[in-house]
């Protein structure tokens, strides 16, 4: 059996384990949440985001499903109501600061804040073997800067808690720093981004600005960036780095004010984002995000997960 076959066998075995774990109910001892627990999910109108909303609501959490398009969001709310789940909808464009501010005021007035933030909203314009950077600015702006804006906006609203508030960033293995494939070829930059103690917003922003400048002047292909879905991969690399940076910044908060921030890769999921060409179902893709959001006794922060296991950045 070759390496590819062995890897496929391991992946299928782990997915079988995940499918089993998904059927195991939480015990009373594990259930720290209640109907008073508020979760906000961005990009919740379809795909993985919609499934994360469904699973959290099924566990008894109050879920606020958000989307840029009100029509699509309300249609999703209607769909979930037809399977017996009651969720709340609010319009939210993570690239529009006025939209974020309106959401902040509404959230404070109606719920007093939130306990869980799932940053799922994102875009990808490449499918199959495509690797166009035509939409690179939009990809980076949405996937990284939009996620960053939401984290900055929601942190002051995260409710004090014995178990800690949670931020879950939906990311991708394509953004790994030190993967065998698809990594940045600049060893010095990889080392800088790997060092969590010296990691900074400036460093992340500079790397993204350099890439986008090269996109604009047509030299990006020789810039040493990831070779597969370059703009998407780099945007998720930035999300991963920012996850680690925020975990470090939030680590010294007082007890009962702790905020745990992690990211995860849902795998190659059959959604519109992949042209429905993935290997995993949306249920499987959402599972680790929901697991992280509901993890009991959670001192875990600044980590990267896939299939309920920690993986390397």
Automatic annotation (TrEMBL):
Gene3D superfamilies to which the protein is assigned, alphabetical: NAD(P)-binding Rossmann-like Domain (3.40.50.720)
Protein name, per record: Short-chain dehydrogenase/reductase
EC numbers, comma separated: 1.1.1.-
Keyword ATP-binding: no
Signal peptide, first to last residue: none
Enzyme class, spelled out: oxidoreductase
GO cellular component: membrane
Family indicated by similarity: Belongs to the short-chain dehydrogenases/reductases (SDR) family.
SUPFAM superfamilies the UniProt entry points to: NAD(P)-binding Rossmann-fold domains
Keyword annotations: NADP, Oxidoreductase
Pfam families (alphabetical): adh_short
One GO molecular-function entry: oxidoreductase activity, acting on the CH-OH group of donors, NAD or NADP as acceptor
């Amino acid at each position: 059996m070759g390496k590819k076959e062995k890897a496929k066998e391991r992946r299928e075995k782990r997915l079988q384990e995940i499918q089993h774990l998904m059927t195991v109910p939480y015990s009373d001892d594990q259930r720290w949440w209640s109907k008073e627990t508020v979760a906000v999910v961005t990009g919740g109108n379809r795909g993985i985001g919609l499934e994360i909303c469904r699973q959290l609501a099924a566990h008894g959490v109050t879920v606020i499903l958000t989307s840029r398009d009100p029509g699509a969001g309300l249609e999703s709310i209607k769909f979930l109501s037809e399977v017996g789940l009651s969720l709340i909808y609010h319009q939210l464009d993570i690239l529009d600061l006025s939209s974020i501010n309106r959401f902040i005021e509404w959230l404070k007035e109606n719920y007093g804040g939130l306990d869980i933030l799932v940053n799922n909203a994102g875009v990808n314009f490449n499918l199959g073997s495509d690797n166009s950077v035509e939409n690179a600015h939009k990809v980076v702006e949405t996937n990284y800067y939009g996620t960053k804006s939401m984290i900055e906006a929601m942190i002051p609203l995260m409710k004090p808690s014995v178990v800690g508030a949670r931020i879950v960033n939906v990311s991708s293995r394509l953004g790994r720093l030190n993967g065998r494939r698809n990594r940045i070829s600049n060893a010095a930059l990889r080392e800088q981004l790997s060092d969590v103690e010296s990691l900074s917003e400036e460093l992340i922003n500079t790397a993204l600005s350099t890439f986008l400048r090269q996109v604009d002047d047509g030299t990006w292909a020789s810039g040493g960036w990831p070779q597969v879905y370059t703009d998407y991969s780099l945007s998720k690399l930035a999300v991963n780095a920012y996850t680690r940076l925020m975990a470090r910044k939030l680590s010294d908060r007082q007890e009962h004010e702790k905020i745990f921030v992690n990211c995860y890769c849902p795998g190659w999921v059959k959604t519109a984002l992949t042209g429905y060409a993935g290997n995993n179902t949306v249920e499987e893709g959402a599972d680790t995000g929901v697991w992280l959001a509901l993890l009991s006794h959670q001192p875990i922060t600044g980590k990267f997960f896939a299939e309920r296991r920690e993986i390397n950045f």
